[in-house]
From TrEMBL:
Keywords: 4Fe-4S, Cobalamin, Cobalt, Cytoplasm, Iron, Iron-sulfur, Metal-binding, Oxidoreductase, Queuosine biosynthesis, tRNA processing. [4Fe-4S] cluster 1 binds at residues 191, 194, 197, 251. Pfam families: Fer4_16, QueG_DUF1730. One of its GO terms (molecular function) is 4 iron, 4 sulfur cluster binding. Its EC number is 1.17.99.6. The keyword Lipid metabolism does not apply. Belongs to the QueG family. This is Epoxyqueuosine reductase. Its cofactor is [4Fe-4S] cluster; cob(II)alamin. It comes from the Bacteria. It is found in: Cytoplasm. The lineage of its organism: Bacteria, Pseudomonadati, Bacteroidota, Cytophagia, Cytophagales. Transmembrane segments: none annotated.
Amino acid sequence: MTTDDLIRQERSALIKAKATELGFDFCGIAQADFLEEEAPRLEEWLRRNYHGQMAYMANYFDKRLDPRQLVDGARSVISVLLNYYPEQRRPEGADDYKLSKYAYGTDYHYVLKDKLKVLLAHIQAEIGDVYGRAFVDSAPVMDKAWAARSGLGWVGKHSNLLNRSMGSFFFIAELIVDLDLAPDGPMADYCGTCTRCVDACPTDAITEPYVVDGSKCISYFTIELKEAIPTEVKGKFENWVFGCDICQDVCPWNRFARPHHTPAFALSPELQQLTNRDWEEITEEVFRELFRRSPVKRTKLEGLKRNVGFVKDE
């Protein structure tokens, strides 16, 4: 092993130790280069129009596949996972309106971005003149692909990242830096012959294992779609009014999910106690206060009312 190899390993260990200290559950590193395997898959996915009205998914095709076009001189992609599986869950009976668990607390963009800024500052303080940028689901970065390359898990048949020790209820974020680090190898795929997620999707959004038609996903209909929800999916939402966790809830690997330790993601008493009638009669004032720093604000009040109205008579 050369001196340079030792330096890369020491720097990588330093970064991972700080990531753990900041509360991240996992941290992995990949070399920043072109995502050759993902390129034809993304091209075909877009060709099939599986992105629906998410026009931004077709933008910056080359940047989406090559981090060196996002950060000058990029050498490494540092991927982190932060668990959001809740200790206390909202009622999820057959008649209850349902909210994706990732939206129980503060918008993850705020939480992860703040932690990544601290991590980057630590790298600069300990190592020196390092340039890098933090990415939290808000730029053309294929976060699941990079997390998989970094050995943090594998992309399952439902297209979510799966980790053997904690399942899939994670937020993913990256630091792309102009620093040579010791890369981690990818992990094997442990989905095996299981098709529970494929079989459980009520809108048949998982068209084949590992391929999701985003324009058929309940999360797409309740968050991304800005117009009326198509009548052909009426009766298939199982009372989800913001997002959907079905494919994750049925996944056997999520039997290993355990509660997060991030106070900002905690379910508030007000949201816990929200009844179906409260959802149906929610006012602008209540919406603004209840979801002030929540991902739910993305739908705006009109979008949430549309979703509730759509599932009300299912």
